[in-house]
Every structure is written in C-alpha cells, then in structure tokens.
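Sequence in, structure out.
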Amino acid sequence: LKAGILTAEEQQQIETGLLAIRQVIESGNFEFKESLEDVHMNIESELTRRIGPAGAKLHTARSRNDQVATDVRLYCRAEINRILDLISAMQAALIECAERGGNTVMPGYTHLQRGQPVLFAHHLLAYVEMLARDSDRLTDCRKRLNVMPLGSGALAGSTIIIDREFVAQQLGFASVTQNSMDAVSDRDFVAELLFTISLLGVHLSRLSEDVILWASAEFGFVSLSDALTTGSSLMPQKKNPDVAELTRGKSARLIGNLMSILTLLKGLPMTYNRDLQEDKEPLFDSIDTIDIALKVFTEMITGMDVNRANTTAAASDPMLLATDLADYLVNHAVPFRQAHEVIGKLV
C-alpha cells in the first residue's frame, strides 16, 4: 500500500483473506496441494481463488528466499522466549529443592572422589548459575537474530521501493539486514541457537549424571517420585531414574543436530541453495527436545527429596576435613606447601 502497488481495497481484501486462510490452517482443514510445490504457492493460490486478482499481487517484491529467512527468524525468536521461561521454571525448582534441603551437608567431589564438605543446596545452586549463563546466551542470540531480511528478494533486493524499516517495526524486528546476498543465505543464527541449546543440554546432562548417582543404592542421597521413575520387567526392587537417563541421552541428539547444521553450511556458495531446506529438521528437533527435557526435568526436581541421614553419614568422613587441617597450620605460620605435605602424610 505504501509503495503504491495496492489500493486500500485490495489491501483489505488480502488481509481479510489471509486471516481466513490462517483459521482454516489452524483448524487442520486446509488442503495443501503438492502440485503447487510449497506453502507459499498454496496460500497464494487459495488467496487468489478467494479474493480474485488482488491475490496475485501477494508476492510483489518478495521471494521465497527472503520470506523463509524471515519466517525462521520469527520462529526462533518466539521459541527462545519460551525456552527462557522454561529455564526460569527449572531454576525456581532447583532453588525450591535447595531450600527444602536446608543446611543438609554432603561431600563435595573432584574426580568423583570425596573432597570437602558442602551444602546440598550449594551443589544444586551451581546448576542455577549454569542455567543463568544459558539464559544470557539465549538472550544474546535473540538480539543477533532479531534483524529482518524481508525485502532482500531472491538475492539482489527489488526495484520496487518498499519501506523495510516500517515492515520491521510491524513485525517486531529491531533493525533490517544490510546486505541482501548475506540476508537470504545467512543461517548463523540457527547454528548459534543450536549451539546454545546444545550447551544447555550438556548442563542438564551433567545434572542428570549427579541425580543418577545420588539416587543409586551406593549413594542414596536422594529419592525420586514414583511418577517419574520406572521399575524392571524382571527385578521387582528396581526404581530407575528414567527422566535423568533420557535427558542425558537426549543431550547427544542436541549435539548431533548442531554438527548437522554446521556441516550443512560449511560448503555452500553464495547465496541461497536448496541445501538450506535441511536446516529445519535439526532446528525443530532441538527445540522440541529441549522443550520436553526442561519440562519433565523441572517436574522431577520438584519431586526430589534429599536423604539427610545418608548425606550426613557420607559427610562425616574425617578425611573431608584434611584441607581444613592444612589451613589451620597455615593460620599458625606454617607455609602452605609444608602444611599440605604434613597433613598428606598424616591421612
């Protein structure tokens, strides 16, 4: 309309028609025709059928290349917002579990060997900080992808003058892309998002490993809700930490999706190539995977209880205070290296 291509009446017809088509799609009753190749042409064809010649103007100054690039950014932006909410819920569950643990003491480990006594809450809050970094990375990623490529055309823009800044404002983008060739072929933001999700998955995997160990008979530090564990088809005594094990396994899938997108991008010449259709599967899968992992893991942590008797017994190991004894000697004018050697020989 602003470019003088559409009349006000045509603009209203297109908007009304598109909203009606969206309702049909959302109801699951839209008939996509393979002969029309893709979603763009299916919608344009249906719009033209509904409103007449004005529908044929829908694709003016557009290419599927810049439309897809814009759609993927809109999708990623919305999903990042949702993942951030899920991370916040996960952090809240960890903090609540830490508060329920109160002043419970347990061994802290290095090399999976007992090191020094720590609070159970302190251990859980380490993961709260990891998740905070994940949130920061997602927020930072969102800033970089919140740039609108629409108007870049197939690769060289359009001779039709359009107000890209106005469109960006309407779609909630902070700015517009500057180089049309880069804009239609850029999937850096997908790779960055998949990396951030992968690292988030690695953090959940590390917490999963801790929970699996803690819930074992050898440690017995925590008990998990029956609703989120399973038994054995043979051994009646089993209570397996399925959520933690599945989450640990899913982290490998997230890493694999990241490798997939990086391998996909590494050999592409300028500009758009059909290879880029393959970016959707790893992107959608990673987002679906981290979504369910965060939801179920949050539920598991909410139902996790610490076994104070077992953590206290483990923390009563006198060897855990060896460092404190060395520090005691240091506070009485013994050089640390000498104090370290003396206590090492004693224990």
